[in-house]
Amino acid sequence: xxxxxxxxxxxGLIGRSWAxxxxxxxxxxxxxxxxxxxxxxxxxxxKKELQELEEAQMLRGELTAAQQVALISxxxxxxxxxxxxxxxxxxxxxxxxxxxxxxxxxxxxxxxxVILSSSTSCLVPSNVFSKVQNRSRCLVSHPVNPPYYVxxxxxxxxxxxxxxxxxxxxxxxxxxxxxxxRLRKEIDGFSLNRVQAAIIAESWRQVQDGIISVKxxxxxxxxxxxxxxxxxxxxxxxHLNAPEGLEDYMKRYGPGxxxxxxxFGPVPDFCGEGxxxxxxxxxxLIPSDQQHLSASKDRRDQLLMGLAKxxxxx
Length: 314
Ligand code: NAD
Prior knowledge:
By secondary structure, the protein is of the alpha/beta class. It has two domains: 5-182, Rossmann fold; 192-312, N-(1-d-carboxylethyl)-l-norvaline Dehydrogenase, domain 2, CATH 1.10.1040. It has helices at residues 13-24, 38-55, 65-70, 78-82, 96-109, 125-128, 163-175, 192-208, 214-229, 234-240, 246-262, 276-285, 290-312; strands at residues 5-9, 28-32, 72-75, 87-90, 115-118, 138-143, 152-157, 179-182. A hairpin with an 8-residue loop joins strand 6 and strand 7 (152-157). The longest helix has 23 residues, at 290-312. The structure holds nicotinamide-adenine-dinucleotide. Nicotinamide-adenine-dinucleotide binds at residues 9-15, 33-35, 38, 91-94, 98, 102, 119-121, 142-143, 145.
């Protein structure tokens, strides 16, 4: 069919990850970057990473690393990069104007059925696509870093996005092994970052109010809530935690949850004087120099890889 070619716009961290994910699903991926030579460099990086993944037996998809590398090509010319594509995944800088302009350029060069998808983390579709004429084919497909191991993709529609565009993208993401979820309408922060903000705020307040240490609030997540959340979410957790399910759970625990919620403090000040103690406490655990940070990031990525493997087998 003619649904074989995907163009990735921007070859940074996220662009490279998307290219690997799409190639693992057998799609031809054309990478474009407006910095000449940048997308060619990205392919060198991707090749190295795919070979390492193959050696670690963590390569996704049915194809070998060499076969996946062969599916990926690089372009310094936008017109050539878009030729033949049915789907465009944008991964340029997180700046509204940069995104608005690149989508305006892209729309001039592709047919009206080509799906235009943005990786934006923080910008809502109605802003990102405001310079596009035909917005029914536009949506945000927000990945989580690193997409190769953390598979969630939030599909966020523009108010004018066609249902078929959401469906086609959902099918595509599923086919390449990601875990897509649909938002029914756009909202600041989408879903994941809103939930994350709630967790950050309450964790920050507990440390700031002298209730718990930085180290221990992280353990509350990693040894407590996080143990479940890698497999089942808060809704299913509640449903399973009362003899007769969610309704029963809320009869028993709803009032307590409401009482606790009304005791939550205001939005914390993350940058003022009050933040210094928390930041110092964190930096005593992991100093914020490059050596310590990158060692901890390597550990995080190893652990995520192990967890991804575990989830694959379940
Ligand atoms: P990055 O800085 O690593 O890469 C951006 C790339 O885009 C660079 O290679 C740059 O040369 C290229 N670029 C910039 N303007 C361009 C243009 N007009 N045309 C073509 N290429 C252009 O950034 P990143 O971390 O890969 O983030 C990309 C997008 O993905 C952002 O919108 C970001 O919010 C989103 N995102 C990032 C993460 C993350 O954790 N890094 C997670 C989810 C989503």
